[in-house]
Amino acid sequence: MNGTFSIGHKLDFITKGLKVEGSISYDAKEGRWIRRVLETRQDGYANYGRYATFQPDESVYGSYYLHSTEPYAGAYRLGNPWYSTDETISNGFSHNAAENKTYCQLKLDYQREFDRHNVSAMVLFNRSSRAYDNRVEYRYQGISGRATYAYDNKYLTEFNIGYNGSENFAPGNRYGVFPAGSIGWVISREAFMKGTEKWLDNLKLRASFGLVGSDKISDNNDDRFAYLQFFQGGDGYSFGFNEFGSGYDGLKEGNFANPNLTWEKARKTNVGFDATLFNGKLTIAADYFREHRYDIITTLSDGDKMGYPDIVGKDAPFVNSGIVDNQGIDFELGWNSTIGKDFRYYIKPNFTFARNKIKFMNEVDYGNEYRQKDRPAIREHFVYVVDHFVYDQAEADKLNAMNDGRGFQPWGELHPGDVVYKDLNQDGKIDDYGDRTHMGFPRTPEIQFGIPFGIQYKGLDVSVMFQGSLNSSILLNGAAVWDFPSYEQDQYGKVKHMHLNRWTEATKDVATYPRLTYGAYENNKNGNSSLFLYNANYIRLKNLEVGRIRYPKHNSFLQVCKMYAFMYKV
After folding, report:
1. Residue 257: is its pLDDT beyond 70?
2. Pairing of the two strands 381-384 and 343-347
3. What are the CA-CA distances from residue 415 to residues 418, 430, 516, 522 (Å)?
4. Alpha carbon separation from 430 to 188, 391, 423 (Å, rounded)
5. Which long-range contacts (CB under 8 A, 24 or more apart) does 110-114 make?
6. Rounded to a whole number, what is the distance in angstroms from the first to the last CA of the chain?
7. pLDDT score of 61
8. CB 162 within 8 A of CB 144
9. Is residue 52's pLDDT more than 80?
């Protein structure tokens, strides 16, 4: 159930162009489901229905019955070895927790034009609350303002400010002030541009700078109110001996609080231009953007962070410490034109490049720059670098004898054809501390582009959208890339195309994949191995739409009729 109520009133009796508006909205939802299904039984990576099947007992897999032209008169056996009768359909009931949202706002708006001067201003108060299940309500509120001024639609300025409050922070840190400003210059309206009207319709330069904030800590409800110290149910205590002992519930300290936690912030800068040429046929938009995020709310519970030592028994609290820089460009080019009377076409490619760099993340000092994560980009891959494959038994024996028999690598005894990783810190052994480094591109693409285009001819129109990304790597593992991966109940997967050029005695000089092994073998099937780092660039046909527009006769109750076929994420 949802609904919105709004009301407004013009205040021209105070001054022309002034008005007040208010609105309130309410949204409530809850879902309940009855699920009736015949469950399945899993055997490895295969699922079998829980019902009886039968097949001829003679020949193999019922081949007699399938290929013989004569009726089968022999005995039958179970085709599904676990069920001789059909199981009963299960009845399941489930529901999601009730949720409701309330949002209200009150806005005072002003807009007025004086000759060549255009001014506007706005002040808005808003408050929102969200109730979910039996949790304490989520609540936010704030006041924002905006003022704009334009002279002759040529010189443009705008100033915004927000004063926002969040429940996630203690009094004194709860509210944040976030100002922003922008300027614009429609240079095509200047007198010195006279004479360009034949080919230049519009040229606008613009720039903006602002401060924004985020109060997001995590998606875990236990992390709310991180400025308060909580106690929660413990594991209990036992008194007495053996079966005469009695157990009592207890309390334990929850996550450590940080009363100084406050808003995460980002300074954003943007410079760009918009241009329209040749009577609207050609459009160009370009932007350079830069973002400096600081006071990023950071958890210190990860193993690579400078948190509390294990002897404390608890993780360090959330802190405002992370720093990340991001910069890039946006570019869009459009062309829209006609050929003859009936043929119209357009194309509007776009391109985005964005590169970020972690400047600080409370990371422990590994002693090697290549191992630190506070220099590469977010979601960049840290891997063990494959050097070569063990050539023969003599090399395997030499590697296994290193470090007083503990071996060169920590994942068990090496054999001919196994992966040998690079010893990056030259200490004679492979470990997480000194021999992993960043490689490839981040998982999130640095370059994204789209190529939408379309044509229209006498009521027939076709639109196409290609989408792609570059500068992206993906680290695969498990059944996606490993040879003979293990599943439940001692089942094994299959090999794939990349395994064909595996190491053997005959191919050891040219092999690109180690020797094949059944099931888990962490040395060769390592989730942090550069062997499984792949290029994730792609281009795909995202949308395709073909339509036919018809204009019925004047006596028809239809004025325009369009029939179309649409394909999405092709």
Report:
1. yes
2. unpaired
3. 6, 16, 11, 13
4. 64, 18, 6
5. 110/15, 110/17, 110/18, 110/19, 111/17, 112/15, 112/16, 112/17
6. 35
7. 44
8. yes
9. no
Nearest to 462 by CA among 559, 541, 538, 553: 541
Helix (H) or strand (E) holding 66: helix 63-67
Which pLDDT score is estimated for 63?
47
Spell out the alpha helix ranges (H) of 294-444.
Answer: 393-400
User: Element (H or E) spanning 63, and its range?
Assistant: helix 63-67
| b/e sequence 229-255, b meaning 16+ C-beta within 10 Å | eeeeeeeeeeeeeeeeeeeeeeeeeeb
pLDDT for the residue 570? 61
Q: How confident is the model at residue 482 (pLDDT cuts 50, 70, 90)?
A: confident
What average pLDDT does the segment 86-98 reach?
A: 79
* DSSP-assigned beta bridge partners for residue 56: 76
**3-state helix vs strand vs coil in the chain, percent to 5:** 10, 50, 45
149-197 residue pLDDT tens: 999 999 999 999 999 999 999 999 999 999 999 999 999 999 999 989 8
* pLDDT over 90 at 237, yes or no: no
Cβ atoms of 394 and 455 closer than 8 Å: no
User: pTM of this prediction?
Assistant: 0.81
CA angle 405, 410, 303 (to 5 degrees): 140
Alpha helices per DSSP H over 166-280: none
Up-side HSE of residue 524: CA atoms within 13 Å toward CB? 27
Dihedral sign for Cα atoms in the order 319, 321, 322, 328: positive
Pick from 202, 140, 138: nearest CA to 165: 140
- Residue 33 has which token pair? 């489901």
Say whether pLDDT at 492 is over 80. Answer: no
Query: Distance (Å, rounded) from C-alpha 271 to C-alpha 283?
Result: 17
85-89, 252-256, 404-408, 471-475: lowest mean pLDDT where? Answer: 85-89
Tens digit of each residue's pLDDT (9 = 90 or more) over 423-434: 999 999 999 888
The Cα 86–Cα 171 span in angstroms is 63
Q: What is the mean pLDDT of residues 86-97?
A: 79
For residue 79, pLDDT beyond 80: no
Decide if 246 contacts 300 (C-beta within 8 A).
no
Long-range contacts of 256-259 (CB under 8 A, 24+ apart): 256/229, 256/314, 256/315, 256/316, 256/317, 257/226, 257/227, 257/228, 257/229, 257/230, 257/317, 258/226, 258/227, 258/317, 258/318, 258/319, 259/170, 259/173, 259/227
Contact indicator for 517, 482 with CB cutoff of 8 Å: no
**Per-residue pLDDT for 513 more than 70?**
yes
Q: Strand 40-43 relative to strand 200-214: parallel, antiparallel, unpaired?
A: unpaired
* Count of H-run helices and E-run strands, the chain: 2, 33
The values of phi and psi at residue 274, to 5°, are -125, 140
Q: What CA–CA distance (Å, rounded) separates 110 from 91? A: 60
Q: Report helix, strand or coil for 166.
A: strand
Q: How many residues does the chain have?
A: 570
